[in-house]
């Protein structure tokens, strides 16, 4: 009996490595991420809110043609929207060409000095402006964390600024109510050099579609604003700062990297002898 028991135990001990080899665990391969392939065209569309900052305005006054600054020169905030086409050159570098419209922004200003009804008057000046920008832009996509890819960028181009006619009404300073008639100066339009700085984050929606939220700063250089009328004018603005909070979509035409199936990798177990 004892001999039989010892034989069974020896057989079990001898066969245990074989059982272990049959039951070894496997290590699953890590999943392969699906992402756009570097290199490919994309379309973009953006809308946003623009905080406009007019850097000032001046005009020529009187027969002596001396230059006067507006005492006050403000532009209201407005909306902006644009479209563009771009190319993703590498995983981190891309560029695009965009056309953007700056919606109607109302201008209010004032000047002070002599006028027809009194020796000292304060004027009320109202107008509005719109603009179109054509920009060439380049971006650095810093890195991707999950669905999020932050970026920075810069652009240069031109902006076509169109001013509406300026309505100028001068009144005696104080509460007398004595005012000159309103004078209308013809509005001007001109192309101005523009540069831009951008920062934001792209958010993956699908492999080919991304949301884009960010900030853009544009500096539109100064230019003609309104024409001459009755020894007043012409006038020019000193440039515009545009601070934009934007959101949009980018559609990538390039193919996507497909996840490749990797079979489970067995983990070798030590062999006991």
Automatic annotation (TrEMBL):
Signal peptide boundaries: 1-20
Pfam families per record: OMP_b-brl
Stretches assigned to the Outer membrane protein beta-barrel domain: 35-253
Keywords, comma-separated and alphabetical: Signal
Name of this protein: Outer membrane protein beta-barrel domain-containing protein
Organism: Xaviernesmea rhizosphaerae
């Amino acid at each position: 009996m004892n001999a039989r028991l010892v034989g069974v135990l020896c057989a079990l001990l001898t066969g245990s490595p074989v059982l272990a080899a049959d039951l070894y665990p496997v290590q699953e391969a890590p999943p392969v991420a699906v992402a756009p392939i570097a290199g490919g065209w994309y379309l973009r569309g953006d809308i946003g809110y623009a905080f406009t900052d007019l850097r000032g305005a001046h005009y020529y006054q009187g027969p002596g043609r001396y230059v006067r600054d507006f005492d006050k020169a403000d532009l209201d905030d407005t909306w902006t929207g644009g479209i563009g086409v771009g190319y993703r050159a590498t995983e981190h570098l891309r560029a695009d060409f965009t056309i953007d419209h700056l919606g109607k922004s109302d201008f209010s200003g004032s000047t002070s000095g002599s006028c027809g009804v009194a020796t000292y008057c304060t004027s009320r000046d109202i107008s509005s402006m719109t603009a179109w920008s054509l920009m060439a832009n380049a971006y650095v996509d810093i890195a991707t964390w999950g669905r999020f890819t932050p970026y920075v960028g810069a652009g240069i181009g031109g902006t076509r600024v169109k001013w509406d006619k300026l309505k100028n009404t001068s009144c005696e300073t104080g509460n007398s109510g004595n005012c000159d008639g309103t004078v209308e100066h013809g509005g001007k339009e001109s192309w101005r050099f523009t540069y831009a700085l951008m920062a934001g984050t792209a958010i993956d929606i699908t492999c080919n579609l991304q949301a884009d939220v960010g900030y853009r700063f544009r500096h539109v250089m100064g230019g003609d604003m309104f024409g001459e009328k009755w020894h007043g004018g012409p006038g020019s603005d000193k440039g515009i700062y545009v601070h934009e909070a934007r959101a949009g979509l980018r559609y990538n035409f390039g193919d996507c990297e497909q996840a490749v199936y990797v079979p489970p990798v067995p983990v070798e177990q030590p062999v006991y002898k």
